């Protein structure tokens, strides 16, 4: 079965906006990411509608709570039938292990990945939380912890992908946002990479929002991303 490398981020305030875009895309070309804004507004019903259209869904809700609550939330995501779901690695080993165990009863369980350090966090932010590691060291520490706790991979910036690929091996799934076409605008992303370089650095999947969702022709923009990523259909 085809395994599209691009995950289009549906950062919309409501279902109507998301569906207006989705009718222009094709499930053979991409997967879709539903994050907390859209999920809070439109809920599981929209996720079901997107899956009925043939799309696989990354439910990006970044669960972070006590182990039992996170495990139950992951099970709810599995019951919904999503392809990928995520938790915060900062929830710790036991939270991640219990989340993994919670999915063991599902034959087609979602891929379970972790967020390490939000890219919005500076060294100063970490120091304010009492953390002494640099952001880069903390990313590596949390990625290793996520791997040891049974996670299938992590969300990381393309800048971190090569190091994590080396440290965590070939099978660890790296999902990378902050992607822009070589000649594209950066929006509010401070460190961006092109699809080709991100894939060369070891990314498995590229999360792409505005370069596709705000394009005059989203399908054409997606096809250009696919071409640059070397993701042949
Ligand atoms: O529009 P853009 O391509 O910048 O969207 C990127 C998507 O990836 C958004 O949904 C954003 O929340 C998400 N993301 C990110 N940086 C991270 C983690 C997630 O931009 N470090």
Automatic annotation (TrEMBL):
Classification via NCBIfam families: PRK00230.1 (NF001273), PRK13813.1 (NF010386), pyrF (TIGR01740)
Annotated organism of origin: Candidatus Nitrotoga fabula
Domain Orotidine 5'-phosphate decarboxylase: 5-225
Catalytic activity: orotidine 5'-phosphate + H(+) = UMP + CO2
Annotated family: Belongs to the OMP decarboxylase family. Type 1 subfamily.
Alphabetic keyword roster: Decarboxylase, Lyase, Pyrimidine biosynthesis
Function text: Catalyzes the decarboxylation of orotidine 5'-monophosphate (OMP) to uridine 5'-monophosphate (UMP).
GO annotations of cellular component type: cytosol
The name this protein goes by in its record: Orotidine 5'-phosphate decarboxylase
Encoding gene (name): pyrF
PANTHER family per record: OROTIDINE 5'-PHOSPHATE DECARBOXYLASE
Top-rank taxon, per record: Bacteria
Subunit structure, as described in the record: Homodimer.
HAMAP family found in the cross-reference section: OMPdecase_type1_B
EC number, as in UniProt: 4.1.1.23
GO molecular function: orotidine-5'-phosphate decarboxylase activity
Pathway where it operates: Pyrimidine metabolism; UMP biosynthesis via de novo pathway; UMP from orotate: step 2/2
Residue numbers annotated as active site: 60 (for ompdecase activity), 62 (for ompdecase activity), 62 (proton donor), 65 (for ompdecase activity)
Keyword Cytoplasm: no
């Amino acid at each position: 079965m085809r395994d599209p490398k691009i995950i289009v981020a549906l950062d919309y305030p409501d279902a109507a906006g998301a569906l207006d875009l989705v009718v222009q895309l094709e499930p053979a070309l991409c997967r879709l990411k539903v994050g907390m804004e859209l999920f809070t507004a439109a809920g599981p019903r929209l996720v079901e509608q997107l899956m009925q259209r043939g799309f696989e869904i990354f439910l990006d809700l970044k669960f972070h709570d006590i182990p039992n609550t996170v495990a139950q939330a992951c099970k709810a995501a599995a019951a919904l039938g999503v392809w990928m779901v995520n938790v915060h690695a900062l929830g710790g080993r036991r939270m991640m292990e219990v989340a993994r165990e919670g999915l063991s009863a599902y034959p087609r369980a979602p891929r379970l990945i972790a967020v390490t350090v939000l890219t919005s966090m500076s060294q100063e932010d970490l120091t304010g939380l009492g953390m002494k590691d640099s952001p880069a060291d903390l990313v590596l520490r949390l990625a290793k912890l996520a791997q040891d706790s049974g996670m299938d991979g992590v969300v990381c910036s393309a800048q971190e992908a090569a190091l994590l690929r080396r440290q965590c091996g070939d099978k660890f799934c790296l999902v990378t946002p902050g992607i822009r076409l070589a000649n594209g605008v950066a929006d509010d992303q401070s460190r961006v990479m092109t699809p080709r370089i991100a894939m060369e650095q070891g990314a498995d999947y590229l999360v792409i929002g505005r370069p596709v969702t705000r394009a005059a022709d989203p399908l054409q923009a997606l096809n250009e991303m696919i071409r640059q990523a070397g993701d042949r259909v």
